[in-house]
Amino acid sequence: MTSNFKPSGLAAHLLAAVSATALIASAQTAFAQTESDTSDELRQDTIEVKGRFQQSLIDRIPVPPEELPFTLNILDRDFLDDRNFTRPIEALTTLPNITLSEDRLGTGTPSFKSRGFFANVLVDNRVSNEFRGSGARDDAFIDRYEVLKGPASIALGPVAAGGVINAVTKSPEAEQFTDFKVRADHFGSIGGEFDFNMGEIEQADGVLFRLSGAYRDYQFDAEETKRETFAIRPVVAFDFGPATALKASVSYTETTSNPNSGFPLMSDGSIPDEIDTSTFTGLANGEAVSKDTYYASEFVHDFLDNLKLTVRGSYQETDFDYQNTVGLYNYNYADGGPGIGANDPYVYAYGFAGATTQDATFLDAQLAYQAEFWGQQQDFVVGASYNDTNFERAFGAFPFVEAVRLDELDAPRFGPVQDPATFAPFSSFESELNSVYAEAAIRPTDRLTVIGGVRYDDAIRINTRRGNAVPYDDGEVTFRLGATYEATEDINVYASFAQSFDSQFGDRRDASPLPAETSDGYELGAKGALFDGIVSFETAFFHSIRKNVGVLDPNNGQGEFFYASIGELTVQGFELSANIRPTDALNLNLNLGSTDVEEEDGALLPAPAIIEETASAYLSYEVQTGTLAGLSLGGGARYVGDVGLFDSYTIADLNVSYPVRENIDVSFDVLNLFDETYVENADSNPGQSFTYGTVLGAPLTAVFTVSGRF
């Protein structure tokens, strides 16, 4: 299908090539001032500044993290490398009120919930293609993950009210280095990644270059499950002097997998005794192939020392094709509910052939102005953005269905291979979003910061399913107002109000589109340090009122995927993150989270089941002196409370590393140390798990890694 407002492929590439990236400035670099670039020393300082482009969730205006009137958790590259999860992004589950939702069709990039509800995963503050994770950035490209909790529409446009996850990609740096990592586990997985930062190119003054990439061949407890990934990303930054800079990058990721796609529960909600992590629930000849290319560029120019223009643009295209990858189903109602009947112990191997294409064009521009009055720095920003997204999905002529007894699951199952040229259109999604916004950080005194903003978003959308097109056109004005006060030299307290507008995907039973979700969020919190910096902490109490939350219609029958809107929900809870370092050698990290959802009078449907309690603790010790200096020992646990029919669980991890030579480390890690069996996607849709899609978390995994820098 061709959209009326979709730019041509050539136009989209040109827009991406000449426009620019990075809207949200870091506090240290947004208004760097340089008087001259005549000396090598001074120009090197300029390169340092211009090499760090504005990719952070800190905000469009330079506000130090301690002055932000909302929760912001940051997991940097050191943290990701130290914990060494199979999927580095899984480190997010150590944070309060962040839980896994699902990882479908083996793309290797799961989705998450924040404060009980879906959390968008962004790339440098831009929403990316998210169909089953097929459009996410590879881990080799990531510098850090940032998590902003609560309504974030003012900062980022229409995104989910629970929070957002921002993947900050690597930028060129002035220092030249090459990083490498080789990782293998006891299932036979092997993979390597590299990061070559050339620094300033000798033959081209003011030009910096960086190249990252990876190849991974994953094996799993279920032998038929496979995943192979290749990724490459060059990025170049041009420093044209003290006032002007440009950055451009191209990212390519290709993943081929045969996923373990899930299974149904027994009709009483229990996991079948015949299924564990070594059970393959897919088809032996299943295959999913995802190819994603992401072009991004960014231009920054300081008209004056206190007036800055940022223009950014990106174009992303994703192809995701699959054959025989859907998994096991059962819609048996004979025992009083969906799932596998106790007296009819069959599952149905269900294989589809499908092809999806996605493309997204993003453009925006902003002006940031800085002034001095009341003896303080005051910051203002105005901007506009445009986002065009298109998605098309086609299915093969017929699904494959085979009845299989539970006690015969070990026998290989094969589905027919279909010709993609014969696939018929099934559904499509086209959207255009136009936005304008204004924000300010006002400092009446050196201890008080007030941040306010207003944004207008206009969303135009056409959803088409089986030839039935449902138009959607809605706009919303959202506000944010928050204040942070320096109560002591080391502690800031804050209060904030923020609204959110999230245009949702899905059709209701009457063929009308889901209305946009809106929310009003309130938060009180504190952040800072205690006991001369031994303890650093961030804590928050939150209360949000959410309207028109979209859920799958509970009246759906087999093959129906209609949605319905809950009238009104109240979401409230608290979060605490603390880091305790009594000595240079010893460090303890603690996280606690609690979320409660209540239906308000007039709610049309029951509130979705969510995980109400999360916690994590991690203790690490590093030998400081002697022959074992540098030896690091770490261990911790992640707790996830029960939800619906699924019990709570605790996962323990152990990490040991040692520098065998200067700049070369080896590590041995054991993930899920006690081989806990748990349902990984319990908060995705517990009711749906009766019929399909239940996925077990990874079993005990022993990992050996060599990493270093030259």
Describe it.
With 710 residues, the chain is mainly β. Helix content is 5%, strand content 53%. It has a 22-stranded antiparallel β-barrel. Strands 1, 2, 3, 4, 5, 6 and 7 form a seven-stranded mixed beta sheet that branches. A three-stranded antiparallel beta sheet has the order 15-16-19, with no helix packed on it. A hairpin with a 6-residue loop joins strand 9 and strand 10. The two termini are 50 Å apart. The model is unreliable at 1-51 (pLDDT under 50).
Counted beta strands: 32
Binned strand content: over 45%
- Summed up, the helix count is 4
Classification by helices and strands: mainly beta
The global form is: globular
Terminal-residue CA separation: 50 Å
Helix coverage percent of residues? under 10%
Taking all residues together, what is the mean pLDDT? 84
Largest sheet: 22 strands, antiparallel, barrel
Radius of gyration: 25 Å
Spans where pLDDT lies below 50 across 5 or more residues: 1-51
Question: Could you give the topology of this structure?
Answer:
Elements lengths: L8 H10 L21 H11 L21 E5 H7 L14 E5 L8 E4 L2 E7 L2 E2 L14 E8 L3 H4 L6 E7 L7 E9 L4 E11 L6 E13 L6 E14 L4 E15 L28 E18 L2 E17 L3 E3 L16 E6 L1 E21 L2 E20 L4 E6 L18 E22 L2 E18 L2 E19 L4 E12 L14 E14 L4 E18 L10 E18 L5 E14 L13 E10 L9 E9 L8 E13 L2 E8 L29 E9 L1
Keywords: Cell outer membrane, Ion transport, Iron, Iron transport, Membrane, Receptor, Signal, TonB box, Transmembrane, Transmembrane beta strand, Transport
Pfam family, one: TonB_dep_Rec_b-barrel
Subcellular location: Cell outer membrane
